[in-house]
Write a structure and sequence with these properties.
This protein is an alpha/beta fold. The chain has a single domain (about 15-275, about 380-410), classed as Alpha-Beta Barrel (TIM Barrel). The protein has 14 helices and 12 strands. It has helices spanning about 30-40, 85-95, 100-105, 110-130, 145-150, 185-190, 190-205, 240-250, 265-275, 315-320, 325-340, 345-355, 365-370, 400-410, and strands spanning about 15, 45-50, 135-140, 160-165, 175, 205-210, 220-225, 235, 255, 280, 305, 360-365. The chain has an 8-stranded parallel beta sheet. Helix 1 (about 30-40) links the parallel strand 1 and strand 2. The longest helix has 21 residues, at about 110-130.
């Protein structure tokens, strides 16, 4: 079901990660088209985004009340007229999920989805014509009491909630609170809910990052009512059976596996069996206590996707400004070894990331702009107005910046063919 690195590899290329809410106006429309133009001018082949669904608790796109609907807050023309024929056509085409979303979201929800599909289709067609493809993001879980949870309670467990166990970053683990899937119940239904979800995703984007891939091998189950994740335990996930069912019904669905954190050999074995690219994050590469870290440049794999950083981490500039001691020495030594020194160290990180053998390279827009910690997208474990709200300034996308990124892309042999 996946694009094999051996049979049909992605070309060597690069792109930029920027959610549409981070455009100056925070919406689709003219600014989104202008960003596509800027990406093409800068020699970029990909635009990666966060999930496109309605935002949930704390403004997070990862707690969307629908795994299928597009966010009406992204609409450039929220009051554009919608005909009865358009609405009927969408209801017929998206009969699996749209009625559930309309029942949940109320009057006007169907018309908003017509508008979303209309605006999104125009943007994606324009991007394709300009040689820019779209990478989406697929959260593994759905929101508690969201449209999917209400419409299909038989597909979810009761008395437990999602999270991850304690690790080197947090003594209490992370308590996400999402409902957990009843995988045997899904299997009895030939995983149709997941098949329909991937069908919808494939309509919207060219490639998707699937969040928390390790949860398909084993997931952390925490008793409902617990105040943190320490009381959870591991339970077996569906493994390959889910992906075989998706592939059997949909064919090739290109995915990137988010394999960050504490990843076990069974997780990597499944990823490789499916020929799914994983993620290599350069900010994770300079820990002296991890000499065999998979994030180190020399350990990157061609089929993986390399990132300067992620939406859950600090910006390149903010991260560099916290480096000290052996980590800083290792970073500076690697920059010198590869020969990518720049006056601004965050641009050195951009060029170092570009130099990776990974065929696909993604750079956060904040890193290209050289912004500090005030521009980070999210700080995990916190809820507040600082998360999910960063926007670019008007006029940030200059021709000079496009040329600088294009030159770095050319040097790394990542320009479109």
């Amino acid at each position: 079901m996946t694009r094999s690195s051996g049979s049909n590899p992605l070309p060597r290329a690069s792109g930029v990660q920027l959610h549409p809410t981070s455009l100056p106006g925070g919406r689709l429309g003219e600014e989104a088209f202008a960003f596509v133009d800027w990406l093409a001018e800068a020699g970029q082949s990909w635009w990666q985004m966060l999930p496109l669904g309605p935002v949930g608790e704390g403004g997070s796109p990862y707690k969307a009340p629908s795994a299928f609907a597009g966010s009406a807050t992204l609409l450039a023309e929220p009051d554009a007229p919608v005909s009865a024929a358009e609405l009927d056509a969408l209801r017929e085409r998206e009969a699996y999920w749209l009625p559930d979303w309309e029942a949940y979201a109320g009057d006007g929800a169907g018309a908003d989805q017509v508008r979303f599909d209309r605006e999104w289709s125009a943007l994606r067609l324009y991007a394709t014509e300009r040689g820019v493809r779209i990478i989406g993001d697929l959260p593994i879980y759905v929101a508690e009491d969201g449209a999917d949870h209400r419409a299909h309670p038989e597909l979810f467990q009761t008395g437990v909630q999602a999270g991850v166990p304690p690790d080197q970053f947090t003594d209490a683990g992370q308590l996400w609170g999402n409902p957990l899937y009843d995988w045997p119940a899904l299997r009895r239904r030939r995983y149709r809910w997941w098949v329909e979800r991937l069908r919808r995703t494939s309509q919207l984007v060219d490639l998707s990052r699937i969040d928390h891939f390790r949860g398909f091998v084993a997931y952390w189950s925490v008793p409902l009512g617990d105040k943190d994740a320490r009381g959870g335990h591991w339970k077996r996930g569906p493994g390959r059976a889910l992906f075989d069912a998706i592939g059997g019904q949909l064919g090739d669905v290109p995915l990137i596996a988010e394999n960050l954190g504490e990843i076990t050999e069974p997780v990597e074995r499944l990823r490789r069996e499916l020929s799914l690219p994983g993620m290599a994050v350069m900010q994770f590469a300079f820990d002296p206590s991890q000499p065999r870290s998979p994030y180190k440049l020399e350990r990157h794999e061609e089929n993986d996707v390399v990132y300067t950083g992620t939406h859950d981490g600090d910006t390149a500039r903010g991260w560099i400004e916290t480096l000290s001691g052996a980590s800083l020495e290792e970073f500076e030594s690697e920059i010198a070894r590869v020969g990518v020194e720049e006056p601004e160290p965050w641009w050195s990180l951009v060029r170092l990331t570009m130099s990776s053998r990974c065929r696909t390279c993604m750079v956060q827009m904040q890193d290209i702009l050289g912004l500090g910690s005030e521009a980070r997208m999210n700080t995990p474990g916190t809820v507040g107005p600082q998360n999910w709200t960063w926007r670019m300034d008007e006029g940030a996308l200059t021709p000079e910046l496009a040329k600088r990124l294009r030159d770095a892309t050319a040097e790394a042999n990542r320009l479109p063919g």
